[in-house]
Amino acid sequence: MWTSLQKWSLLLGAAVAVALPLNSSAQLTTQDIDVRNGIAAHVGSITGHVKDAKGTYRRYCVGCHGTLGDGEGENEPWVDPKPRNFQLGVFKCRSTPTGTLPTDEDLFDTIARGMDRSNMPQWSHLTKQERVDLVAYVKHFSPRWTNEKPGTPITIPPEPEVTADRIKAGRDVFARVQCWKCHGVLGMANGPSASTLTDDLGKPILPYNFTEGARPKCGETDKDIYRIFMTGLDGTPMPSYADNIKPDEAWDLVFYLRTLMAQHSKEKGMAKSLGLKPVDPNAPAGQQ
Ligand code: HEC
Ligand code: HEC
After folding, report:
1. How far is the CA of 25 from the centre of ligand 2 (A)?
2. What is the 63 CA–ligand 1 centroid distance (Å)?
3. 3-state secondary structure the chain
4. Which single residue of 18, 65, 235, 241 has CA 20 to 30 Å from 118?
C-alpha cells in the first residue's frame, strides 16, 4: 500500500517534471550551450573560435551580457536599454532580411562600432582576431545557429548623385510609407505612435530622433541608413520596408533623411535653398 506521503511525493515529482522543460526552454543551461562549442566565425581570412573567446568574453562582456549570454549580467539592473539576450538569436544590426540571422561580418561590425544611445561600448581596440572569436562566442549561445543559416545580404545599388528632385522624391516616400507616424514629420521622434511603442520583450522604446545628432545604432554612412530601413531592426517596432520601397526610392529617402539630421550635409543645404517644407500628415494620399 502507498502511504499518502508517497502519493504526494509522486504528485510533486510529476509537477516538477512538467515545470522543468518549460523552464529550460526559456533559459538555456551551460550544458545546453556547450554543445555548440564547435561553432566558428569567418570574417575575411580570419576564423574565430569559441574556446579562444572565453577569456575576452569574461573580461569585457559578461558584466552586461551574463555568463549564459542571457543579458542578465551583474550590471543589467542599471542598464537601459537592456543588454541583448544572445540566447534568442535576434539582432538589430543586419545586412540580411528581417527575421533572418545576421552574417558574421554584421556581428563583427556591431562589436567594433558599439551602439549609440545605449551602454554597448565600442570594442575597436580589441584585435581583429579577438573580435572574430567573440562573434563565434556570441553565436554559440543560440540554437538558431545550429538550425538556420544567416540570411542573404540585401543588394544595395550604387549610390546615385544627390539632386533636388531626389530629395523631394524622398520626402514623398517618407510621407507615403508613413515614417512620420513614429519619427514625427520633422524627425523629432514625436509622431502620433511614438509614445505607444514597445520592443518584443514588452519594454517601452522610443523612435530615433533624427535632429539630435546621435549616431544611428547600426552605422552612420548613407549605406548604413539605407540598410537600416530596408532590413529593419529586429526585436523592435522599426520595420523593414523591403516590400514597400524600391531600391531607387530608398536612396531618395536616405537623401531626405539627411535633411532632417542635425549633422551638416549637402542635402541639408539643398533643402534649405529649395524651401522644402515638412510632410503634411493630413494631406490626401499622393498630394504631398
Ligand atoms: C556596459 C554593458 C555592455 C557591455 C560591457 C557589453 N555590451 Fe553588448 N550590448 C549592451 C547593450 C545595452 C546592448 C543593446 C543595445 C541596444 O539594443 O540598443 C548590447 C548589444 C549587443 C549586441 C547586439 C547587437 C544587435 O545587432 O542587436 C552584440 C552582438 C553585443 N552587444 C556584443 C557584445 C560583446 C561581444 C561585448 C564584449 C566585448 C559586449 N557586447 C559588451 C551592453 C553591453
Ligand atoms: C512603428 C514605428 C516606426 C516606423 C513606422 C518607422 N520607424 Fe524607424 N525606428 C523606430 C524605432 C522604435 C527605432 C529605434 C530602435 C532602437 O532604438 O533600437 C527606429 C530607428 C530608426 C533609425 C535609426 C536606427 C537607430 O539607431 O535607432 C532609422 C534610420 C529609422 N528608424 C528610419 C526609419 C524610416 C526611414 C522609416 C520609414 C521608411 C521608419 N524609420 C519608420 C520606429 C519606427
Report:
1. 31
2. 10
3. CCCHHHHHHHHHHHHHHHHHHHHHHHCCCHHHHHCCCCCEEEECCEEEEHHHHHHHHHHHCHHHHCCCCCCCCCCHHHCCCCCCCHHHCCCCCCCCCCCCECCHHHHHHHHHHCCCCCCCCCCCCCCHHHHHHHHHHHHHCCCHHHHCCECCCCCCCCCCCCCHHHHHHHHHHHHHCCCHHHHCCCCCCCCCCHHHCECCCCCECCCCCHHHCCCCCCCCCHHHHHHHHHHCCCCCCCCCCCCCCCHHHHHHHHHHHHHHCCCCCHHHHHHHHHCCCCCCCCCCCCCC
4. 241
Tens of pLDDT along the chain (288 residues) come to 455 555 555 554 444 444 444 333 468 999 999 999 999 999 999 999 999 999 999 999 999 999 999 999 999 999 999 999 999 999 999 999 999 999 999 999 999 999 999 999 999 999 999 999 999 999 999 999 998 999 999 999 999 999 999 999 999 999 999 999 999 999 999 999 999 999 999 999 999 999 999 999 999 999 999 999 999 999 999 999 999 999 999 999 999 999 999 999 999 999 999 999 999 988 876 666
Nearest ligand, measured from the Cα of 218: 2
Does domain 33-147 fall under CATH 1.10.760? My reply is: yes
User: Does the CB atom of residue 187 touch ligand 2 within 6 A?
Assistant: no
Instruction: Name the residue ranges covered by the structural domains of the chain.
Output: 33-147, 164-274
Ligand nearest to the CA of 119: 1
List pocket residues of ligand 1, CB cut-off 6 Å.
Answer: 60-61, 63-65, 75, 79, 81, 83-84, 91-93, 107, 110-111, 115, 118-121, 123, 134, 138, 217
Which one of 176, 182, 209, 254 would you pick to mutate in the ligand 2 pocket, going by the greatest count of ligand atoms within 8 A of its CB?
A: 182
CATH code, 164-274: 1.10.760.10
